[in-house]
């Protein structure tokens, strides 16, 4: 997938060594900071997600919009 095809919510880049973030990413960071979560807790959460990805595969890292409807329907049916 080319950078032009990537959803805006997951794109970020660097210009002159400074990180550039999408509006969605900045809003997410603002909401996290306002929730009272610490930087250390965010790092712990990322490390836990990395561990889950290694153990279970990237199933829980895919944004909902990138998961096919059929997969979601199958997961919902299996849970019932």
From TrEMBL:
Residue ranges of domain HNF-p1 in the record: 17-48
Span of the signal peptide: none
GO biological process: positive regulation of DNA-templated transcription
InterPro entries tied to this protein: HMBOX1 (IPR040363), HNF-1_N (IPR006899), HNF_P1 (IPR044866)
GO cellular component, one term: nucleus
Single GO molecular function: double-stranded telomeric DNA binding
Pfam family, one: HNF-1_N
Record-given protein name: HNF-p1 domain-containing protein
Source organism per UniProt: Paralvinella palmiformis
């Amino acid at each position: 997938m080319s950078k032009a095809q990537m959803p805006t919510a997951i794109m970020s880049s660097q210009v002159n060594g400074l990180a550039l973030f999408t509006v969605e990413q900045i809003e997410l960071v603002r909401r996290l900071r306002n929730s009272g979560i610490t930087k250390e807790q965010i790092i712990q959460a990322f490390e836990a997600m990395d561990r889950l990805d290694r153990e279970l595969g990237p199933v829980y890292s895919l944004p909902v919009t990138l998961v096919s409807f059929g997969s979601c329907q199958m997961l919902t049916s299996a849970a019932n």
